[in-house]
Amino acid sequence: MKQNGSSELIIKKSRFITSMARTTTVDEANAFIQKISKQYRDATHNTFAYTIGLNDNQVKESDNGEPSGTAGVPELKALQLMKLKNVTVVVTRYFGGIKLGAGGLIRAYSNSVTNAVENIGVIKRVLQQELIFRVPYNRFDEVDHYLKTNNIFIANTEYGVDVKIHIFLDSNEQEQTKNDLTNLLAGQVNFTNGEKRYNEIPVEDNNYHEQ
User: Fold this and answer.
1) What dihedral do alpha carbons 33, 37, 39, 44 form, nearest 10°?
2) Core-most of 29, 71, 124, 155, by most CB within 10 Å?
């Protein structure tokens, strides 16, 4: 998930407020649940689910008074289907007077989570290699255009006698990018590998199941 955030749906007059947070420990998850439950203490229900660890090492869900299996479980399944990790979700319901039934509740809570994720956005953590190279000032705009066109983020730029550029690439992007830049600069470029690190890359197509 890109950042903490919230969204709201109205389903048959019931108000569903979904609050989400990035959490890496059970303590952080519990603190967020308590915070939201206190914020909406007058709500009919404050249901929740969380998944901690890259392999869903610790998971928990709660229906908070809704019929068993109609709130927390579909919320957790929604997180897992979208392959989200280290995330806590609290779905607050203000009852609107129309009963939804078990199936309606399952859809409402699941859709509330999916809607919130689509509004907030998703990132994936990818191990990338830093690539460092220098270009003359009069060639920087061309290089910058190439990098932007190919969605390659410039991590750092140093200005001296020439322009020293730092970029991060997935392992399968390195050779093609080097070849492209070498051709663009007519061979007048040398590359140095820097550090390897995990970077957060936005998922733009909302096809979370494939991430």
Assistant:
1) 150
2) 71
